[in-house]
Amino acid sequence: MHRTACRLILAGMLVFLAGAAGIPAADDDHHGVTTMRLLSPDSDHPPGITPRPGGQGDAYPTAMRTAGHALHALRRSALDATSREMDLANLQSLQRSLVDAKESHDTAPVPPGADDDGTHARRLHLALIDALGASLDLERAVLEGRHGQAPGLLEGLCAVRVGPSRLFAGDE
Q: E strand or H helix at 171, and its extent?
């Protein structure tokens, strides 16, 4: 009985909060149970939320710009015990951005002269995976207190390449 009461209270709170946030409630099956519709049937975004201008096309550059900011902060860091928390926060931001970039790599601009048989997109995808792996190695070193190894691991991350150029071009 207690579990059911908690579920009903929680469900009521969710419906109330959704209404306050402007998310319409719906009784789609007409059984008297109100549910929240988080996504409209004809859209990939919540009702009332307008997608960013440019749609998916700007997802890759935005992700890489954020990754670049986090990487720049890591390069300025002492990478020691005094900067541990900030380093971990920057690594988290970098990793999120790399995952976002990986998910949208097919929208990345193709450099002039690159082949259009998909080779560049595949190389970019693999480079993003390499960068994510290198960032996880660096995170492990920071967590384990291996401060002497952290700078070398950071340089390895900065050196990840897509074909002839570095993934993080600003670091060349």
A: none
Chain segment 39-60, per-residue pLDDT in tens: 444 444 444 433 434 445 689 9
Q: Are 110 and 46 in contact (CB under 8 A)?
A: no
pTM for this entry:
0.66
Amino acid at 2: H
How far from 31 is each of 5, 26, 34, 88, CA to CA, in Å?
Answer: 20, 11, 8, 49
Count of alpha carbons within 13 Å of 74, Cβ hemisphere only? 30
Q: How far is CA 40 from CA 17, 22, 32, 49, in A?
A: 18, 13, 20, 10
Per-domain boundaries in the chain: 1-51, 55-171
- The model's pLDDT over 85-108, given as tens digits with 9 standing for 90+, comes to 999 999 999 999 999 999 999 888
CATH class assigned to 55-171: mainly alpha
